[in-house]
């Protein structure tokens, strides 16, 4: 047996090498031409942007892209093997621009003409047959439709929970805009959300649920787009309580503006939630209104600050009417010897004299307020704390009536402070505008 392998061993090895070389020669120089069917060809669609800009849509776009496109090619076996291993080297292109000139008012159905290209350097492979799964081009006019959003409650929901009130959920938005091929839009019978027990609890009363489109037979339509894919669904589970709404402010109005009235609509709101949560709620606050951004009477929407686990069956925002009026200013000329003046802080054995004869006080308020006041309603205060004898220019504090404010530059007056001589009468001033220590409100001279 061993002789079979060992006898003439050199010749046997030489024979094997020659056989291998002959095989390589046949394979590489005598490469046979053969046909081959190849599946999984890459499909490309061009011209879709131009089509949609003209108001049309390729209705069966997804079917065309995802089809199992086959071709039969003919060429050298070695080149064919490359395509078999990688079918994506072959591209079938559908150019929609070829159909633009045949568009009618509503739709078009025509044969699909694919151009097949082989992305190899070799020029010896030819396409002998194309076998698309999708043989038609379906083009439809793009249309829109406003559809009311309905709902369907699953049996497990109604078995699990007792709904309060009329038991009707609040769905936002209550309408959606549907966009897509007109023939598909015409099939739409309803836009609906399915409400199931798994999406809600007594702690979770609000959920975002998908909106789905159905035809008259209840078959879902997936080829259309919606203005929103989901809806907020509020489900009335638990207890109910009515409370007032409280307005909050932040910031201040610009100078010269006055907020004279605030009206909230509605003034009260019904809350829904677990009874133990509602028991501690006396009112619902609104998000703060920034008065620095209010410039005129306006109607705005402000969100309620709802605790977790609590909801309302109305929109979360309420209307707030802010009534704003602009102030008017009025100038009051006042003689200093006629001021209703309170002096504080005058030292012992000192007397004072106001040297300034006249001042101008400007007050600002709502017109009806200003008309009700005169200069006699304005009070003044002068602080002489820490001042000894001499002449000073000191700030005069103006105390306006309620709901009135002082505008303009601060007012300073000239004041002379003198020593009050013991046993000597105070000199009579040039005008009745002086006082001594111990007087709270004085415009006349006295003796100590």
UniProtKB/TrEMBL annotation:
Q: Where is the GP-PDE domain?
A: 1-56
List the InterPro entries hit by this protein, alphabetically. c-di-AMP_regulator (IPR053154), GP_PDE_dom (IPR030395), YbbR (IPR012505)
Composition bias, kind Polar residues: at what positions? 425-448
GO molecular-function terms, A-Z: phosphoric diester hydrolase activity
Pfam families given in the database record? YbbR
Q: Where is this region: Disordered?
A: 418-448
Coiled-coil region(s): none
Query: What Gene Ontology terms for biological process does this UniProt record contain?
Result: lipid metabolic process
| Entry protein name | YbbR family protein
Instruction: Record the organism.
Output: Cellulosilyticum lentocellum (strain ATCC 49066 / DSM 5427 / NCIMB 11756 / RHM5)
